Amino acid sequence: MSLRKSATSGLVWTFLDTVVARGVGIAASVLLARLLSPREFGLMGMVYIFTAVSATLVDGGLTASLIRTQQVDNRDYSTIFFTNIAVSFILYWVVFLLAPFIAAFYDEPDLIFIVRVYALIFVITSFSAVQLTIFQKKMDFKKLMLLNIPGILIGAGIGITMAYYGFGVWSIIAMQLATQAVLTIMLWIVSDWKPSFVFSTLKLKRHFEFGYKLTLSGLLNTIFDNIYNVLIGRFYATASLGHFERAKTFSLYPATILTTMVGKVSYPLMAGIQDEKERLASAYKQILQFIFFISAPLMLGLSAVGKPLILFVLGPQWEQAAVFFQILCISGMLYPIHAFNLNLLKVYGRSDWFLKVEVIKKIMIAVVVAIAFQFGIYALVWSAAIISVLALAINTYYTNLLINYNLWQQFRDVWVILLLGIVMFLIMYAGQYYFFDENLFLKILVPSITGALFYAVTNYFLKTPSLQLLLQFKQNLK
Predict the structure, then answer these.
(1) Phi first, then psi: what are they for 276, rounded to 5°?
(2) Which of 47, 49, 104, 141 is the most buried (most CB within 10 A)?
(3) What is the Cα–Cα distance from 115 to 129, expressed in whole angstroms?
C-alpha cells in the first residue's frame, strides 16, 4: 500500500475509532453530569494528576521506543511487558500510601479511598500496553476500533446505571476501570503476540535510553496539564473544580479526537520514511494544513456557541462550566498542532530535544500561571490560551532544525484558514446573541449551520490546499 493510501486508511479507521469511543464517552459524560453534581466531578479532578503521573512512569516511554525501532523481536516485547507490570505494582503501592496525604492537601477525607481504588487503572493498563503498541506499530487501526467498542459500551453502561442508583463519584470510577479492564481482556484475546518468560537487560537499556527522556517530558507535561486542577481544587470550592474539569473534558473531546488520530497515524507513518527527508517534509506540510483545516473551525465554532451548548446539554447548574468551556476551546484549537510537531522529534529519536522543549515550556507555563493566578479564576483559565500560543513557537523552533519548516512558514501555510475561522466565529457569536432570545436550541443550530456554510463555501471558492487534500481522500480510498 502506498504512503498516501496508508495514511488515508489509517486516518479513516482511527477517525471511526475515536468518534465511536469519544461519542459514547460524550454521551455517558452528559448523562453523568445530569445525574451527578459538580462537586463529584471536582473530587475526580483532584486525583487525576496523581494517577496520570503514575501512568506516565509505568510506561516510561518504552512503548514509543518500540514503535520507532525498526527491528524488534519477542525479547523486546516481553522485556517491556514485564517491566511495565513490575513498575505499575510498585507505583500503585506508592500511591496507596500517599492517599492520606493527598486527602489532607485538599482537605477532602473521601479522597483516601477514591485514590486507592482509582489508581488500579494504571495497573490494569500495564497488562495490555505492549499488545496495543503492536497494533499501532502495524497501523492496524481497524482492529483497534473493533476492540475498543465493547469496553466503551460496558463501561458507560455500568457508570450510568450506578449514577442513576445514587453511587455518586463511584459511578465515574467504575466506568473508567471497567472500560480499561474490558479493553485489556479484548487485546489479550485477539492479539497474536503473547509474552514469553524472557527478559533482556540489553533490550531494556536500549529502549530506556530513548524512553526515559520522553518519560521525564511526559511527567512535566502531566504535572503542568493538571496544574489548574491542583490550584483550583486547593484554593477554590470543590464545585468550581468540577465546573472546570467538565469544561476541560468537553473542550478536549474534539481536540483529543484530532490529536489521537494525528498521533496514531502520523508517528508510525513518519517513522517509516524517516530516512527520506524531502518526502517526510512534504508529508508533514500536508498533514499540518489538513489538521488546522479541521481544528480551527471546529474549536472556534464550539467556542462561539459554547454557552448555549453547555446549558442545553448539561443544564443551568453548569453555567460556570459554560464560560470555562468557551475559553478552553480557543486554547484547544492548537493542541493537535502541538502533538504533530512533537511527534517529529520522536521520529528522529531526539528525545533529548523533546525533554528540552518540555522543560522550556514548563518554565514558561509556571510564569504565566503565577501571574494569572493573582487575577482570579477566569484569568487563570484564560492563561491556557496564552500558553498554547507561546508553546507553539517553542515547538516549531525545534521542528525547523529537523526539516527546515519554521513557525513563520507554518503560519503562512494556514493563515487563510485561521482568518476564515475567526470570521466564522464572529458570525456565529453574533447570530446567537442578536437574533434569538431564550431558545437555546436555535442559538446552537442556526449559527452552527450558518458558520459551517460560510466556511465551506469560502474554502471552495478560494480553493484552499487543505480542502483539495480532503477531496483527494475519496480517490485514495479506492
Answers:
(1) -110, 85
(2) 47
(3) 22
